[in-house]
Design a protein that fits this description.
The protein is mostly beta strands. Helix content is about 0%, strand content about 50%. It is globular and about 65 Å long. The N and C termini lie far apart (about 45 Å).
């Protein structure tokens, strides 16, 4: 993957409790939908989301199926397994599909891992497949922009071993 190797969300995130803070909430248990408004902070394990409005849908009324966040911008952050840096993103509209481990960022979308960056009108990140797709705006006003930092070179066979001498 262009942004640093496998990047699955922490495998323990789904088993963690969900914590949400907002100025107000409307919960419709019959439809399995909750809408949080006003300075919303969502956290589940390593996953964090901030937005002006967050809609949480539960397909089976037990597990989160889809989360839609809107903000100026809405932001998310999540730690992939076996990584020391978070995957971070922001956009005016973010959709997270829990069962598919898929995040879609739309309108002024940006995605980072470390110093690597994707920017475009729409970015789709499929963690389970290790795929990032970025698209330009339909009117061609915003093309895809990618920054990939070089990886550190692996020591070659002729490289001197690291010094183990201690200073006097």
């Amino acid at each position: 993957m262009l942004i640093g190797g496998p990047a699955h969300a922490l495998s323990t995130d789904k088993q963690q409790p969900i914590h949400i803070e907002a100025d107000n909430v409307t919960i419709d248990d019959g439809r399995g939908v909750a809408v949080y408004r006003g300075n919303v902070h969502f956290k589940q394990g390593s996953a964090q989301l901030t937005a002006d409005e967050v809609t949480v849908s539960t397909a089976d009324r037990k597990q989160v199926g889809k989360i839609v966040a809107k903000g100026a911008p809405a932001t998310f952050r999540q730690r992939p397994d076996n990584k020391d840096q978070d995957m971070r993103g922001q956009a005016l509209h973010i959709e997270y599909f829990a069962n598919e481990e898929r995040v879609v960022l739309e309108t002024q979308a940006q995605l980072w891992q470390g110093q690597n960056e994707f920017a475009g009108s729409r970015i789709e990140y499929r963690a389970g497949e290790e795929v990032v797709q970025a698209q330009k705006a339909p009117d061609d006003s915003q093309r895809v922009h990618v920054i990939i930092q070089p990886r550190p070179a692996a020591p070659g066979p002729d490289a001197p071993p690291p010094s183990n001498k201690s200073a006097p």
